[in-house]
Amino acid sequence: MAITLELIILFLVSFFPIPSLSISDAFVYGGCSALKYVPNSPYESNLNSLLTSLVNSATYSAYNKFTITGSSPNDVVYGLFQCRGDLAMPDCATCVARSVSQIGSMCRQTAGAAIQLEGCFVKYDNTSFIGVEDKTVVLHKCAPSIGYDTDLMNRRDAVLRSLGGSGGPFRVGGSEDVQGMAQCVEDLSAGECQDCLKEAIGRLKSDCGGAVYGDMFLAKCYARFSTSGAHAYAKSNHGNSHSDGEKTFAIIIGLLAGVALVIIFLTFLKKVFGGHAK
């Protein structure tokens, strides 16, 4: 059969309208590798399979990684996704589906790409990056300085210290009007995560001075702070947004199940008519 399960699901992800649930869908950063792959090549087929696996896995997991191998080392593709630690599962699934859709339009025929939305991170490449610590700065953003407020900066530093001293890949903290958040990609070990966050938090404190908010995204972790609600990044569901997320989650599951049944039926027809043709 010329039509594969991967291509059908990618078509649905690209063209099925996914409603905006919250600020977790907002674009943070993205990038594409300079290297291109050949259209209709084994690498493209493996990439389609990888992206399908990411979308499917996000319906039941907040993090997963995959390696799709081929007949040649040049055909291998590596990829992972991770949702923010406080994101509900329906919102995670929708965020990853939206990320895959955006990567498809943003990085056409590139052998590697990464995208960070407020609620999730997706990356793929033709060289292995899974389990490799990377403290390269990919996004550095500070609000304009409002002057040095000693009390405010002391609370900010206390929140950042609490993030650095906490455990686990996802960390949140707060003190009065100061909120902080940090997260590592879960392919890192506990020690590598701590090392990455130490770097991100240190850069955030030194670079953002008296700013009312700051973001420091490294390749495998990030740290953020906000004062007085100046930069809202925490999950925010209003009105019917959570129920909309559950509906979208159910739709994604239904589409995946429906496509699987179609493929099974088409395969059955192929066998029947192929057998008669002998």
Automatic annotation (TrEMBL):
Membrane topology of this protein: Single-pass type I membrane protein
A Pfam family assignment: Stress-antifung
Gene3D superfamilies xrefs: Gnk2 domain, C-X8-C-X2-C motif
Any Gene Ontology CC annotation: plasmodesma
First and last residue of the signal peptide: 1-22
Organism domain of life: Eukaryota
Primary localization class, coarse: other
Record-linked InterPro entries: Cell2Cell_Antifungal (IPR051378), GNK2 (IPR002902), GNK2_sf (IPR038408)
Keywords: Cell junction, Cell membrane, Disulfide bond, Host-virus interaction, Membrane, Repeat, Signal, Transmembrane, Transmembrane helix, Transport
Transmembrane regions listed in the UniProt entry: 249-269
Intracellular or extracellular location(s): Cell junction, Plasmodesma; Cell membrane
Residue ranges of domain Gnk2-homologous in the record: 25-129, 130-230
Subunit architecture: (Microbial infection) Interacts with Grapevine fanleaf virus (GFLV) 2B-MP.
Family note: Belongs to the cysteine-rich repeat secretory protein family. Plasmodesmata-located proteins (PDLD) subfamily.
Protein name: Gnk2-homologous domain-containing protein
Record lineage: Eukaryota, Viridiplantae, Streptophyta, Embryophyta, Tracheophyta
